[in-house]
TrEMBL record, chain A:
This is ABC transporter permease subunit. It is a multi-pass membrane protein. Its main location: membrane. PANTHER family: D,D-DIPEPTIDE TRANSPORT SYSTEM PERMEASE PROTEIN DDPC-RELATED, OLIGOPEPTIDE TRANSPORT SYSTEM PERMEASE PROTEIN APPC. CDD domains: TM_PBP2 (cd06261). It comes from Pseudomonas farsensis.
TrEMBL record, chain C:
It is a multi-pass membrane protein. It is found in: Cell membrane. This is ABC transporter permease subunit. Its main location: membrane.
């Protein structure tokens, strides 16, 4: 009986502790990189971000320069295409590739700023709703219910109808539309955490309300919020493009992907590339972000794995 | 010929080289007898019965020399043919009644389903029979319970419904897989009594999977002790309890509080059941056995006749014949 | 059951008033002078301006204006369109069936194929089919549907010539609008081939509008089904000797449907949002296109109360889904 016990007693000493307890970042990356789709999405997004950051140097032409002799030139691999315009030109003779690259700038800008503009107030409202469940909480949640009663695109349309079209108003509209999901998510996470013993311990240790909110509870609610931020980043790009397509978003001649599609509609029979390419760019970017979001969700929050 | 004959049953999860969860199990059950299978969790008791019912899915694999029920070779049956036997001639009652019933359907519907499937009863006739079955399992106000949903019933009541469902097809063999483990202590005795009464009345065979040895002593005629997927001892009930041959049976009996009156603390066997990757080369109990010899570590014993029972041990205990 | 419905109805009231506040605010938040904005002129004759302010009820203090607004709503007065001078309500009623018809077909498409794909993917977990369904549904979920519509038109209408490009019915066909639902009206009319024509007009818009719900339903059904198939009662059903079809579709799907139904309900809201885009692409004469055109023409009464009507519709649909949810899930129904 003695031999197995002594063996068991010595075994852990020989084990390398660093492999047992990897740093959170390493652990996260291991989980994330196991999801091939997520890595592919990340790679594509890095490319898009690169193009957006260095648009003036990456783009072969000025996106608004009109080459009058090259109206609706097809992409290079089709008959009549030229290496001068790799992806062809639009109805005014502007280089499609340069416009798409410039459009990446706008889409990322809209996505990023609307996420920031809804994430911060969303977290604040959610924290308050969670910490004050008597009166403030329900009234905040009722307000969010009202906002959720309208389909998100319709609410964005309504807001733009008030504010008028344009880049900044698009960002505001999208930020308002995505607010309720942050509030709900934060509140739900806060309510879950508030019953935990470590919160009670912090209370007993005399932590004040701001400290409890932002230092004790909030960091433990971040995982679902990060996932939601990724997902709402992709829907922000989609909604911005939809608004542009309806003529309510960024106005032409600014090369926004949705706006480009709207003006390309008339050439559906003659020049498929002016219709296909901006839409394909939108689809691929949104798909890439959603793939990343799935990977993030699996890596950060295994509990959410089965949620749709 | 026995009602159920199992020879050399193996169940593996994964390929043919995977460690078997059930390892060369032999078992026979006669019509109308009560056989208890005891052993700790993970010893393969439930998996054996699931294999018999055809409830093991890929990657699980079943092999056996014989798996015969009432003269039919269960291994040769197509899935469709097996479904004619399962639920009718062999029925099973599971451990947790609160999750074993479908929450979306009424009690009556779930019983009538069996009647329709196996006896061809429909409409009023089926409802009438379902009512009789509920009365049979002693559910008060049975008429009103027919339209109740599972969440409206208590655990004991749900288990009665599950039993009614199991006996609906007039089975020749009823398998009860820890039927009282999830219930309150006060209900446990009632459910056991119900099962034994039904068994006597219908002369069905009853396989009782349990780790409650007190229940075994009261109800079963024969008992099979399982350890790590193997049957380590099979014997008649009073003898096996009084003069166990296998050290593991002895250890199990010593762990019953009633048996250790006067002792400072309950006897326990050191160590745990071997897992998937640390199965010993010799007797599976050898790392934990207090009587272990060098021979035991090298070779696996077979299930052989001993003085009072069949046991899988080179150095059986209590072999003096009275 | 009745008390369950009553409780849910009670929850609707504050939401409804919240929506009216929103639409009330809508017309008052427009930057600049509302009358000038609506008339599209810079200098409006002061007398006409005062009349317009009074007609729109903008000359009283805000609370009084709100009470007026609610009072008019209670009488069923939703104002009239600045363009057509027709009442908003009657315009809504004429256009609404077109949207319902489109949404219904889209949901039918999404529901049938989404459930089927989800169930099969769950049963064949890890197979090529499963990976295919998951990949396609994530793509569908990421789809800019306004572009998707253009691509389908480009391929099926322009290149192959299989389906008509826009509208609900061939312009040369004279269909009497008896129900407002083109599929039914064409069946009732004597025009030859009208039903087939209406159907052909419906196919592409339904696919476009149904794409995102399809993706969501397929994903949800799969994960919900996977969860249910692990439940003990599925084992019980198998131990009863039931057929695999019965186990999957009666015992499994019935329980797996409960979360899917909720998602289905939420999709109806998304669907109405998507209808705005789909109707614009296909020139489908429904309320989505109506609303967008009203915004373009600064027809504020239509914008304001059109949004109110759509919001009420969404609330109503969610309410019905809630009730259905209760019917599907006995545990909720019996909660007190």
């Amino acid at each position: 009986m003695t031999s197995p016990i002594s063996k068991a007693g010595t075994a852990p000493g020989a084990v390398d502790h660093s492999s047992l307890y990897p740093s959170p970042y390493k652990e996260f990356w291991q989980a994330f990189s196991r999801n091939k789709g997520a890595v592919a999405g990340l790679a594509f997004m890095l490319l898009v971000v690169f193009c957006a950051l260095f648009a003036p140097w990456v783009a072969p032409h000025n996106p608004s320069e009109q080459y009058r002799d090259f109206l609706l030139t097809p992409p290079v691999w089709l008959e009549g295409g030229t290496w001068q315009f790799v992806l062809g030109t639009d109805e005014l003779g502007r280089d499609l590739l340069s416009r798409l690259i410039q459009g990446a700038r706008l889409s990322l800008l809209i996505g990023l700023s609307s996420v920031v503009m809804s994430l911060i107030p969303g977290i604040l409202l959610g924290l308050f709703a969670g910490f004050f469940p008597r009166l403030l909480g329900p009234s905040i949640m009722r307000l969010m219910d009202v906002m959720l009663a309208l389909p998100s695109l319709l609410l964005a349309v309504a807001i733009v109808a008030i504010l008028g079209p344009g880049l900044i108003n698009t960002v505001i509209a999208i930020a308002i539309v995505s607010l309720p999901s942050y509030v709900r998510l934060t509140r739900a996470a806060v309510m879950g955490e508030l019953n935990r013993d470590y919160v009670t311990a912090a209370r007993l240790a005399g932590a004040g309300l701001p400290r409890l909110m932002f230092v004790t509870v909030l960091p433990n609610c971040m995982a679902p919020l990060i996932v939601q931020a990724t997902l709402s980043f992709s829907s922000a790009i989609l909604d911005a493009a939809a608004l542009g397509f309806l003529g309510l978003g960024v106005q032409p001649p600014t090369p926004e992907w949705g706006t480009m599609l709207a003006s390309a509609r008339d050439y559906i029979e003659r020049a498929w590339w002016v219709v296909s390419l901006p839409g394909l760019t939108i689809l691929l970017s949104v798909l890439a972000i959603n793939l990343m979001g799935d990977g993030l969700r699996d890596a950060l929050d295994p509990k959410l794995k089965n949620a749709a | 010929m026995s009602l159920l004959q199992i020879d050399n049953l193996n169940v593996r999860f994964g390929d043919a080289n995977a460690v078997p969860v059930v390892d060369g199990l032999d078992l026979a059950v006669d019509a109308g007898e009560i056989l208890a299978i005891v052993g700790e969790s993970g010893s393969g008791k439930s998996v054996t019965m699931m294999a018999l019912m055809g409830l093991i899915d890929a990657p699980g694999r079943i092999t056996a020399d014989t798996l015969r029920f009432a003269g039919t070779d269960m291994l040769k049956l197509s899935a469709r043919q097996r479904r004619k036997v399962v639920g009718k001639d062999i029925a099973m009652v599971f451990q947790d009644p609160m999750t074993a019933l479908n929450p979306s359907f009424t009690v009556g519907y779930q019983i009538e389903e069996v009647l329709r499937q196996h006896l061809g009863l429909k409409g009023k006739a089926a409802r009438q029979r379902a009512l009789e079955l509920l009365q049979k399992v002693e559910i008060p106000a049975a008429e009103s319970r027919l339209d109740a949903y599972p969440h409206q019933l208590s655990g004991g009541m749900s288990q009665r419904v599950a039993i009614a469902m199991a006996i609906a097809g007039e089975p020749k063999l009823l398998i009860a897989d820890e039927p009282t483990t999830a219930l309150d202590v006060t209900i446990q005795a009632q459910i056991m009594e119900l099962l034994v009464n039904l068994q006597k009345e219908r002369n069905m065979a009853l396989i009782l999977i349990t780790h409650d040895l007190a229940v075994v002593a009261e109800t079963a005629r024969r008992v099979c002790v399982m350890y790590a997927g193997q049957a380590v001892e099979v014997g008649q009930v009073p003898e096996l309890f009084e003069v166990p041959a296998h050290p593991y049976s002895e250890a199990l009996l010593a762990a019953i509080p009633e048996h250790s009156i006067g002792a400072e603390r309950l006897a326990t066997l050191p160590g745990i059941v071997p897992g998937r990757y640390d199965r010993p080369q010799g007797c599976l109990l050898s790392p934990r056995c207090p009587y272990v010899q060098e021979h035991c570590r090298r070779q696996r014993p077979a299930l052989d006749p001993k003085a009072h029972s069949l046991a899988r041990c080179f150095y059986p205990l209590n072999q003096e014949v009275a | 059951m009745l008390s369950f419905i009553a409780r849910r109805l009670g929850l609707l009231i504050p939401t409804f008033f919240g929506i009216t506040l929103l639409t009330f605010a809508l017309i008052r938040l427009i930057p600049g002078d509302p009358v000038e904005v609506m008339m599209g002129e810079r200098r409006v004759d002061p007398e006409m301006h005062a009349q317009a302010m009074e007609r729109l009820g903008l000359n009283k203090p805000l609370p009084a204006q709100y009470v007026d607004y609610i009072g008019k709503l209670a009488q069923g007065d939703l104002g009239e369109s600045l363009r057509s001078r027709e009442s908003v309500w009657s315009e809504f009623l004429t256009l609404f069936p077109a949207t319902v018809e489109l949404a219904f077909c889209a949901l039918l498409f999404a529901g049938v194929f989404g459930l089927l794909a989800g169930v099969i993917a769950a049963l064949k977990r890890g197979s090529l089919f499963d990976h295919g369904v998951m990949g396609i549904s994530l793509t569908g979920y990421s789809m800019p549907i306004f572009w998707w519509g253009l691509v389908l038109i480009m391929f099926f209408s322009v290149k192959l010539g299989w389906t008509p490009v826009t509208g609900r019915i061939d312009v040369l066909m004279d269909i009497e609008p008896r129900t407002g639902f083109m599929l039914i009206d064409t069946l009732l009319s004597d025009e030859e081939g009208a039903f087939k024509d209406a159907l052909m007009h419906l196919i592409l818009p339904s696919i476009v509008l149904g794409t995102i719900p399809l993706a969501v339903i397929a994903r949800m059904t799969r994960s919900s089904m996977l969860e249910v198939l692990r439940e003990d009662y599925i084992r019980t059903a198998r131990a009863k000797g039931l057929s695999p079809a019965r186990i999957v579709f009666i015992h499994g799907l019935r329980n797996a449907l409960i979360p899917v139904l909720t998602v289905f309900g939420l999709q109806i809201g998304t669907l109405l949002g998507g209808a705005v885009l789909t109707e614009t692409i296909f020139s489908w004469p429904g309320i989505g296109k109506w609303l967008i055109e009203a915004i373009g023409a600064r027809d504020y009464p239509v914008v304001q109360n059109g949004i109110l009507l759509i919001a009420c519709l969404v609330i109503l649909v969610n309410f019905v889904v809630d009730i259905l949810y209760g019917l599907a899930n006995p545990r909720i129904r019996h909660q007190r």
